[in-house]
Structure formats: C-alpha cells, structure tokens
C-alpha cells in the first residue's frame, strides 16, 4: 500500500475537500509551492519559516548542521543560525566570481532539507505527520526535487506527503535529472482525480491580487477579468510596493524572486527589468539554474537588443551559462549563436567564444565532446583577450583563457602541457596584478593544478597543493573531498575519513563523500561504520550502482542475509535489470532455477559482464554440470583474465581430468600471487595424487 497521495485536477477548493475526506495523520503544514510566490524553494522555504523557532528550541544544533540549506532555501532565516559557511567568495565583487555550483547542487540541498525535516520530526518525539503541498505542478524545479526526494527516501517512515496539482499534466524539466518528480509520483503516491465544482467565492479583489492571483475560484477570477487594464495595474502597483517594502525593510529576500516580479510585470512597472537582473544574478550565484534560465528568458523578451544591448547580453549570457550547467548544451549553443548574430561588441564575442569552447570541452555529453572544436573556439577567445585595453583585466582574462585551454589539453591527454599553462598563468598574475586582485581565480588555478597533478599520479605533490588551496579557501568543501581522495590513494584511510567528514560539515550531504567514507572505513576493518556510510550513500542517491553493490556485498559478508535481500530488492526497484545486481541476487539465492534465471537475465542485459559468467559457472559446477561450468568459465576468463576465474576454471579442468589445462590455469594464478592452494593443485596436476576441493 502506498503511503503518499497525489490529488490532481479540479480547483484548489475541490482538492481541499478531497483532502478533508481522507484519513490522514496530523498535518504538519499545508504549503503553496507555486513559484510565483517566492521563486525557488517557495514551499521548502515556507516550511522552514514555519518550523524554525520550534526546531531550534528542540535541537539547537539543527541550524549549524543545515546552514547551507536554510540560507539558500529561506534566506530570511540565515541570521537565525551560526554562519558555519563563510567562504570568502561571498565577500568578492560579482565580477571576480569565477566558481559556480554544479548542477547537482540543488539535488544535494533537497537531500539536506529532507534530513533537516527528518531530524525535526524525531525531535518532536516521532509519530506520523502529513505534509500537504499545493500547486506542485507550478513549483520551481527546486521544490519539485525536494518533494521527489521526500517521496523516495526511506528514512522518513512516519511522513505522509500529499501532492496536489491542477489539471495540467505534471512534467519534468528538460536536461539530465538526478531525480524525477513524475516518476516518484507514479511510483510512490496513490493517485486520486477530482473534478471542478461551480463553487463561488466572495473573496476581496485586493486579497486575490496580493495572493499573486493564485486563487482559482470562479468568483475572484471573473471579477479580476472584468477590471480595466488601468484598474488591474493599480492593484498590482499597490501590491508591488507592499512586497518591495517587505524585501527591503523586513529582509523577505525570496519575495524578490517571485511576487515582486509578478506584480511588477502586471503593473507595467519600469523597475521590472532591474528586478529581474537582480533575481537572475542571485539565482545564478546560488546554483538555482533552472530559475535563472526562466527569469533570464523573461528579461531577454523585455529588452531591446539594439537600444539596450548590454542588459540584453547580461540576460542572454546568464541563460546560456546556466543552460550549460544544466547539461542543456544545445540550448546554450543556440543562445551563444543568437548573440553572435546580433552583436558586434568585443566583450560579447569574447564571452561567446569561451562559452562555446567550454561546451565542446566540458558540457556536451562525452560522445559529443570535441577537443578540436573546443581548441578552435578557445584560440579565438585568446586572440580577443589580447585586445583588452586595461592591463590588469587583460592579464586576468588571458590567464583565464589559458586555464580553459589547460582543460582542453587534459582532454587530449596532455597533462604536462596543461600544467605548464596553469603555472605560467599563476606566475603572470603574481607579476602583473596586485596581491589582492582576483584572489578566487588564483585559488581556482591552484585547484586545477592540483587536479592535473592527481591525474598524472603525482599524488604527494597534488596533496600538498590541495592543502595549500584549502588553507587559502578553508570553507569550500570540494578541497577537502579531493584531499580525502588522495589520502585514500596514499593508504591513509583514517585521515581520508576525517577529510571527507570535514567536507560534509561544509556542504549539503552528497553521496560520493558517504560512499568514500564507507570504502575507507572498510579498509580499516570498521564494518559497522562502513555499512552505515554505504547505506547513507544509497539513501541520498539510490540510482548509484556502486553504493548498492558495496552495501549488499558487505551485508552478505557479515551474514545479514535478510537485510541484504531487502537492500537488493530496493536496488532492483531503483535501477532494474542491472547485471551486477542480478548476479548478486543469484549469489544470495546460491542455487536452483531462480538463481539460474537471474544469471540468464544478467547475461541478456550484458553478455560482456564476466562476473555473471563466473557465477553461472559455479552454479553449473555445484549441479555437476562440468561441461557447462567449463564453457561459462571460458567466457569469464576471455572477458576478464583474473586469478579467481583462472583458479576456479582450473578446478573444473582438474575434476574433468584435463590436467594439462588445469596446470596451465594454476600456473597463471601463481604468476600474479602466491596462492598456496594453487601451488598444491599445480603439484597434484603434474604429479596426480590426493583429493581435490570444489570450485567457488
């Protein structure tokens, strides 16, 4: 039975009536998620504003643990919690910021918000609760991600989510998605359709307008439609002044991303363009890229590209860059191409050439990346940077361009050339700029140098460089994550765990860190912490195959077979038909027709997966089918000539009387490792005597 619910169709009052007739746990909150109110995180931010006082009273540590989530989803509350994140980049002028969040940033924030809600519900003493979200079909992508995460997570067993949508079809945004609301609604929620009634509402027009015209009752909608253009504009002008007062005098920052823009547009207010500019800048800086694209396109439509080219380009460039970050590279290229057709300005074409180079070097999916085209565009960009008049700006832009060229060299397997470019850039900035100029870009250059050193297996040098970067920029989590990776590579797992935990303390939760902690803990023989970390990695992103495999294999290893079966069932639900998971299932079943069927399905999904051939060979051996076992081990060895496959094939050869072939397999095992049993069996094959053991 599905715990969550999806009420769709009709008007809001109809959905509310349907809700009132349902047998639900006590309601924690009813939230309007329509992005017209507060833009990104309209619903999540409203929830935070409602619960923050009680949450901090019950658990004062919840604020510092989730500062990132609170500060971005509900910026009005940032002053309520200690600022554990204070990366110096936020003290820089916007022109100096050359580092932006990844497209997974909002997904990680959604998981952090879910963890905050989980912690708060536990602090309340547990017990079932209901969270109702209206207008989810009109929510920003950030709120849709948040709700999808709530629907999918298994560590909120007492929370019932009721998602309410209108008559329009719920769709996911374009581009690569870490989670799909459409899928999670279909998978996790009981759907219930309602129809619109002819209810008449006598609400005041002022209230209707102040509510961003979201009341869909026929009465106020009809009265609003009967107003003259001047009357409507006057109502929205009054609402706009009230909203702007709340933004500037009461610190209600998020209203500037929603209601202020709506009222300014309906009022025909001349401030709309500047309000949009500020909203786009904020969304871009905080990694709220889908909103930045939507708002930026609104800005583009309002600005004359000839009469006000600079502002038009500001919107167009923001849209293109954010589309790139969202893995929507073709759309980004269209923006750049349109600007190239319209503009003859040096600065515009400089940004276009750099942006196009990055599309081909980084943002297109792997099969469509093209280092040659990337180099062509970057060379054009470098030529344009040489024409910048201001010496300091020319030095910065030239070094920034060669930093991009270094990425292309890495793509073309030329790390030494990339290192030279980065080091020359660092030296040039030191020589031509004041020490305090472009501080963040200097750090980015050192960070990139550390990455190239790591790729070149110069691990100790890379570690020293990352530590230097972390010292200069101590609040950015990524530095510590990379330090953890290098410490693992150097065989220092305890220190790696500390580095990963430092990274997590400075960021929203992200699955890679938890997975790597699990691996490092397991290296130290710390099984329970490893299990907990693998489980958390699965919880944060259950589409990560390696997290599932490591978690299930470790559960099997410690004898927790029921838990392993449950984890495997969930894994196959999230990422079905994966040969790795089907092979694990066969291993847990250990024998019989069901195990063989799993292996047949695994090999149908991927005939080149060697482990499935090897496990099917072991199953055939157990059933006494030596010929079948030999054929499957042959296939496994042909795909992956690893010692364990060789050893087991040698056993089958030995049992089949093929002693020459068996001896060859055992000898191959001994070439790669000192295996006592392989040595003994080799002796048996060359001087036959004694008993033999089973394959497996």
TrEMBL record:
PROSITE patterns: TPR (PS50005), TPR_REGION (PS50293)
Alphabetized UniProt keyword annotations: Repeat, TPR repeat
Keyword Repeat: yes
Highest rank taxon of the organism: Bacteria
InterPro entries according to UniProt: TPR-like_helical_dom_sf, TPR_rpt, Ycf3
Pfam families associated with the record: TPR_16
TPR repeats: 477-510, 511-544
The protein's name in its UniProt record: Tetratricopeptide repeat protein
Native organism taxonomy: Bacteria, Bacillati, Actinomycetota, Actinomycetes, Kineosporiales
